[in-house]
Amino acid sequence: MMLLDEPCEGLAPYIVRRIESIIEEISQERDVTVLLVEQNVAVALAVADRHYILDEGRIVDAVSTERLREDETLRQEYLGV
Fold first, then answer.
1. Partners of 51 in the beta sheet?
2. How many CB atoms lie within 10 A of CB 68?
3. What whole-number distance in Å separates Cα of residue 34 and Cα of residue 6?
4. N or C end of the chain: smaller count of CB under 10 Å?
5. Domain total in the chain
6. Is residue 42 part of a domain?
7. Beta bridge partners of 5
8. pLDDT of residue 81
9. Does a structural domain hold residue 43?
10. φ, ψ for residue 24 (rounded to 5)?
11. Is there a single domain that holds both residue 7 and residue 27?
């Protein structure tokens, strides 16, 4: 298992894309579970299978990538995007 806490914060878009591909490689090709804490929704959607949405430190929802992509109300309510 690998834990990453906002690995893309403050980085240039090119570097962010590279980090995304490295996370995907580690997760899929090396069969390692990755726990990613990330405020950048685009990065989270690109690399995660499941998303746990926190509000004031508590898990308020657990959703698949597909649901998070498709449910605009959910994104607006919790993520502001």
1. 63
2. 21
3. 12
4. N
5. 2
6. no
7. 37
8. 67
9. no
10. -60, -45
11. yes
